Amino acid sequence: MTQHSQFALLGKQRFLPFFITQLLGAFNDNIFKQSLILAILFKLTVSADRDLLVNLCALLFILPFFLFSALGGQFGEKFAKDWLIRKIKFAEILIMLVGAAGVLLDNLPLMLAVLFSMGTQSALFGPVKYSILPQHLQEEELVGGNALVEMGTFLAILAGTIGAGIMMASSEYASIVASSVVVVAVLGYLASCKIPSAAAALPALHLDWNIFRQSWQIMKLGLGQRPSVSRSLVGNSWFWFLGAVYLTQIPAYAKEWLYGDESVVTLILTVFSVGIALGSMLCERMSGHKVEIGLVPFGSIGLTLFGVLLWWHSGGFPQAAQAHDWLAVLGHAQAWWILGSILGIGLFGGFYIVPLYALIQSRTAEHERARVIAANNILNALFMVVSAIVSILFLSVAELSIPQLFLVISLMNIAVNSYIFKIVPEFSMRFLIWLLGHSMYRVEHKGLDAIPDEGPAVLVCNHVSFVDALLIGGAVRRPVRFVMYYKIYNLPVLNFIFRTAGTVPIAGRNEDLLIYDAAFKKIAEYLRNGELVCIFPEGKLTSDGEINEFKNGIERILQENPVPVIPMALQGLWGSFFSRDPHKGVFKRLWSRIKLVAGTPLNPEAVDRQLLQTQVAALRGDMR
Hints:
By secondary structure, this protein is of the alpha/beta class. Helices cover 64% and strands 6% of the residues. It starts with 15 loop residues before the first helix and ends with a helix.
């Protein structure tokens, strides 16, 4: 369980070529799409309504995600992913050659056909893009890898959008755009040639070419996953709903509410993209190199808070004789509040989306992963279409202003995520654990790499406070099943967390024999399933900060389930609010520094309770 910076992945061949490949793909998509939109608006002579053609561009790019994501999911399971990516990237070269011809000839129908083909290529690439990560990354690298991908994607979208504007401003725009999209496509293909082998997950899969039937089947597969995965798909798509609303309304918001020109639109898009990139990057540090879904409620709260702040600070912006450029806008204090709100939306959007992607990848069976991600892509496209309909209804029918629309979707965010967190209380439970470990306590870890990455094991630890289980659960990257005294298990509020985490309540043999026997049966079940079980062998909280005598229950567990034992110790927790120190205070030792130390795994045949108590006491030392 060693930990490395996510940026170290950029030096690994198992990640860097893929990262460059997907980044160049997103960059190229947006160069061509934005260039086409700008050409329609400013360069081409067209008889049709220009606004209609711009909306047609959006439709042509998103429609393939409905039509071909299911096919992409099947391809991602049946074929080796590195081979499939190279084929898709080679197709991009051919598509962009046709697109270059369309740009040079000012042929709008040809460019629209290419845009549809680009959407198709992206729809086929999406499932393999995310399903290949768990094959090349270790579990503790998954959050960092997803963070880099999200950062790269949004910055590539931003760079492509801005780059298209710069290129289209040139009198030689046609040749510049045409050559650029082909060169970028070639570079993307060359990068894909360096992607390491990624074997097919289900080579025997029979391809169903009926895209409508298969789309329905894949949607059922995705939404039929365990609740934590299926609701993560919904949460992921909800994020794209929010993003689509904000990104679609930003140009009009900049013009009508900030009285700005095109440079103000670029400024807002830049701030939004930087926010998402920054949030994505911070995810790994804040999650402790593990899939920490506790960040999802944190991100959701921020999305609502900063959405409301954006509404609150909008309105009353000073108007000038001519449109403000970005420098003029920055000269007004109100603009900084608005941009800060937009940055916050992007930042907390990163906190929200990265753990969801990592959870979907880590908790989906390998032979279903690409198809589940395909289902997510279909759902994303559906939510983005619905976002357009909702925006039309609120803006045109209900006659709300754009800031009021931002307020409405911020409040809708509360409702949607409350539903998700109610169905999957693990999100809320992990959030409370994460909050505890980052507010009241500063938890340091030592030796946790002794805990195996997989397989059953028993953790034993001293029992100092009512939140020992929460602190250990937040520190250990794998899910941990705790055994605890049933009266602590039944404490209000904490009981919700313990139940959600699969905690095993236990009573003394003479206190309640039914609870006692049921506990050992549940422990055996968890260990048979290859899970981690943590027990506090003292059987009660310390009343003086010292370690109480270990009970013989740990010996029974190891006799019935001979699995490795890892001694652990909590240091510095005595005297904090949740301990039984009679001299504690509410604010005494607030945000106190504590340490969780793990020792070397022990052979179960050579272990007894006295040895374990000695080991735990040695790990704790004098730090009560």
